[in-house]
Amino acid sequence: MLILSLLWLVLGLLIGALANAAKLRPSTWEQHGWLAMLGLGALSALIGGWLATWILSTLFATATAIWVAVMGVVLLPRLIMWCGARLHAS
Amino acid sequence: MNRNQLSTKQGNASGPAVKRAKRSWKLGRRAAQAALVLLLCIGAFLSLFPLGRALTRSAFLLPALLSASAPAPLVATGDPVRVTHLTLFPNTSRTVYLDIYEPATPPPPYPGGREAIIDVPGAGDNRTVPQLVNLSESLAREGIVDVNVGTPALFAYRVEPQESAAVVQAFELMEHWPGVNPQHIGIISFSVGSLSVYEAAGDPAIRAKIAFIGILGGYADVLSLLHDVGTRSQTVNGKTERWEPIATTAYVLYQSVSYLFSPSDQKLLQEAFPLTPSFPPPLPAAKVKQLSPVGAAYYHLLEGDQPGNANRNIAALTPALKALFTRLSPLSVISQARAPIYLLHDRYDPAIPYSQDVEMAAALARLHHPYNFTTYTIFNHVQVNLNSALLQELGDAPKLLNVLTNVVLPGS
Question: Which of A90, B42, B72, B164 has the maximum number of C-beta atoms within 10 A of its C-beta?
Answer without folding.
Answer: B164
